[in-house]
Amino acid sequence: MTADLIGRLREVVGPAGVLSDPADLAGYLSDWRNAYTGTAAAVVRPGSTEEVAGVVARCSEAGVVVVPQGGNTGLCGGAVPDSSGRQVVLSLTRMRRIRDLDAANQTVTVEAGAVLRSVQEAAAAAGLLFPLSLGAEGSCTIGGNLATNAGGTGVLRYGTMRDLTLGLEVVLPDGRIWNGLRGLRKDNTGYDLKQVFIGAEGTLGVITAAVLKLFPAVRSRATAWAALPDPQAAVDLIGVLRELAGDRLTGLELMSRRSVEFVLRHSAGARDPFGDPHPWYALVELSDTLPVAGLDAVIESALGEAFERGVVLDAVVASSSAQAAALWGLREGISVAQNHEGPSLKHDVSVPISRIPAFVERTDRALEAAVPGIRIVTYGHIGDGNLHYNLSKPVGGDDDEFRARAGALARVIYDSTCAFDGSISAEHGLGQSKREIVADYKDSHELDLMRGLKQLFDPRGLMNPGKVLPGL
């Protein structure tokens, strides 16, 4: 990239908005796990949609690749530049404004760099709820959430970002601005273009703002921890809870004993809710907009019914917000705790809820045959069919040898996922980590249609190439 383009970019965003010194670039060139690292000619930090458009237009004129980046908390390398040193990282973290909150319409309009937690807080200050919740909510941005169609713990009741988004503002690859910031629940005027950009990981354009749905604030909750004999019991528990709690069922998380053991071993202050270990656990949350909704009685009744049916072996209901937080801490601490056990091969898959028990049984058996003693860490959002199916080396195993098996072990999991009509990416996206392998698990006609969209929107391949689409 020429010094002339650097100068032209500085004209758009100001001298402080372009970083080119290697010491200033470091934080933008790797993902948070240091699993993916690249280089870049510069990092550009625009402060408005117009500045984004100016940057993209000038890069387009010069034939320079743009890599959009938000909070950089992704797990698949989707926001990391390649190793050429010729790409421009477009960081949206300066664009943090809450542009509008319409309480009557129950919408909030936010810029792409707004941190998820700040959007949650803005909604709460208005007596409303933005329900997306995930582990990185203190640092991930709305633009990244949209780019990967984030899900989190509330999908069972509220859906993914696709379901939570009414309108978008997008800078197209040639620098034009598409203003689709409409807060309408009904708009039947042709193609729903926002859905093209949600989940596209910045390969079709740069999302700069969004109109998001809000909901009535939650004023009461009930949280419980249940011991289960097997994954089939978790599926049966969903049925009992839906039968007795209806749409007050907000979250249902499944965890294997091994995943909980890792948290108990490595997370300070973590305590086992039961005296004896059990094979599987479920974390259940009910919520209601009424301040006094009798949810403890509802959850106790549902768990009692599940116990009578042989679904639940034991259960405890949190009696305070601190106890509820401690139970959620057991679930949310799994990913970090696993890292203390050596290399963690992480997989994010989904299968139909009814097929989860058979999927787990078959996949566990295949992995154990491939690597005797492998430690399988299974947990996730069973209420929407999403499992984080992570792998740790056998006790005493060699780190490098285990990492060398990563591709083969991923094939075992993905082959099984495909056999059960599932998806090899439930909520983390494809990025660069699954870009090539997806061709083996996605219908070829579907991939052709996706390539057609890429050619239509970005014929020169300047928007985040090397991500999502195999061969591009």
TrEMBL record:
Among InterPro entries, the record links this protein to:
FAD-bd_oxidored_4_C (IPR004113), FAD-bd_PCMH (IPR016166), FAD-bd_PCMH-like_sf (IPR036318), FAD-bd_PCMH_sub1 (IPR016167), FAD-bd_PCMH_sub2 (IPR016169), FAD-linked_Oxase-like_C (IPR016164), FAD-oxidored/transferase_4 (IPR051264), Oxid_FAD_bind_N (IPR006094)
Keywords from the UniProt entry: FAD, Flavoprotein, Oxidoreductase
User: Where would I find the FAD-binding PCMH-type domain in this sequence?
Assistant: 36-217
Which PANTHER family does the entry mention? BLL6224 PROTEIN (PTHR43716:SF2), D-2-HYDROXYGLUTARATE DEHYDROGENASE, MITOCHONDRIAL (PTHR43716)
Q: Recall the GO molecular function terms of this protein's record.
A: FAD binding; oxidoreductase activity
Its lineage opens with: Bacteria, Bacillati, Actinomycetota, Actinomycetes, Micromonosporales
Q: Read off the Pfam families from this record.
A: FAD-oxidase_C, FAD_binding_4
Protein name, entry field: Hydroxyacid dehydrogenase
Cofactor(s) in the UniProt record: FAD
Might you name a Gene Ontology BP term for this protein? respiratory electron transport chain
